[in-house]
């Protein structure tokens, strides 16, 4: 009976550790996703601040995209 109780206790400890590690991985993935989204927003904002073509350059660009 002692071996059964010891193995049962070891299994409970392992189960708790698995749950803890799983939660840690989930938090890490969530943090990574948030960082990726923030980086994407920063990149879009940076691109929106770039100079945009005007006048002849804009007309030339439009004619190239139409063909």
UniProtKB/TrEMBL annotation:
It is found in: Mitochondrion. One of its GO terms (molecular function) is structural constituent of ribosome. The lineage of its organism: Eukaryota, Metazoa, Chordata, Craniata, Vertebrata. Its main location: mitochondrion. GO terms for cellular component: mitochondrial large ribosomal subunit. GO terms for biological process: mitochondrial translation. InterPro entries: Ribosomal_mL52 (IPR034596). Residues 53-67 have a biased composition (Basic residues). Belongs to the mitochondrion-specific ribosomal protein mL52 family. It comes from Takifugu flavidus. This is Large ribosomal subunit protein mL52. Residues 34-67 are annotated as: Disordered. It comes from the Eukaryota. Keywords: Mitochondrion, Ribonucleoprotein, Ribosomal protein, Transit peptide. The keyword Ribosomal protein applies. Residues 34-47 have a biased composition (Basic and acidic residues).
